[in-house]
Design goal:
It is built from eight helices and seven strands. By secondary structure, it is of the alpha/beta class. The relative contact order is 0.17. The structure holds adenosine-5'-triphosphate.
Length: 220
């Protein structure tokens, strides 16, 4: 069993998140993808962050029609800050199978600051997916990573290569995966909701209804 782990604030979850999870599942032949909405995340400001129970509920609504997607409240029910290293430790005991931690390139560029970064790369397989605004070449400046072939990184950025896989231990790997560019951003969605502008193109219908019903991200 190959299990993708997709953590995030999901503030709110949008069609881009669903697309990324689906495309990554296809590329890596994952049996399922487990969404892990954060509670009180270490790498995001808490301003304009909807309460964890609302973000959890929106993920539940968004993935309801996807048979390979699952949801855990492991982080969102926690009353203290959740760190990836601890989440992976818990999930390794709960899930029987290979774990593949999916993260966007923008978030992964902060990797050296993550708690327990050195152990993390050998605790699970990592999949770093492209995101407009960041380049794989930027990864070559990061310490803590296995030596990354700079020519290979450029071929990914140029679109000549789709995927590079680097061994991080005898059992784990770091995969860099270029997906079709997805311009959807949760912060843009929040800002548009606050301004009363339409966001229906980017949100699953039940998520949009939930936001309206609970007056999330709205100043009135
Ligand atoms: P914002 O868009 O406001 O920056 P976010 O969507 O990045 O918010 P999260 O919900 O924490 O915030 O994102 C979950 C994961 O999805 C992160 O690893 C992030 O890098 C990735 N991600 C989000 N949007 C995209 C996108 N458009 N393309 C690629 N990866 C993305």
């Amino acid at each position: 069993m190959r299990i993708g782990l997709f953590g995030g604030t999901f503030n709110p979850i949008h069609r881009g998140h669903l697309l990324i999870a689906e495309q990554t599942r296809d590329h890596l032949s994952l049996d399922r993808v487990l969404f892990i909405p954060s509670g009180d995340p270490p790498h995001k400001q808490t301003e304009s962050l909807a309460p964890a129970h609302h973000r959890l509920e929106m993920v539940k609504l968004a993935i309801a029609t996807y048979s390979h997607f699952r949801l855990t409240d492991l982080e969102s029910r926690s009353t203290h800050k959740s760190y990836t290293v601890e989440t992976l430790h818990t999930l390794r005991q709960q899930e029987a199978g290979e774990l593949w931690f999916i993260v966007g390139l923008d978030a992964f560029l902060d990797f050296p600051t993550w708690k327990g970064a050195t152990q993390l790369l050998t605790a699970a397989n990592f999949v770093v997916i492209s995101r407009p605004g960041s380049t794989f070449t930027q990864l070559s400046a990061l310490s803590l990573l296995p030596s990354l072939p700079s020519t290979g990184l450029k071929t990914l950025d140029d679109g000549h290569e789709t995927r590079i896989e680097i061994a991080t231990s005898s059992q784990t790997s770091l995969t860099l995966l270029r997906l079709p560019p997805c311009e959807i951003s949760a912060s843009v969605i929040r800002s548009r909701v606050t301004q009363g502008l339409t966001v229906s193109d980017w949100l699953p219908v039940p998520v949009q209804s939930y936001i309206i019903h609970h007056r999330l991200y709205s100043s009135y």
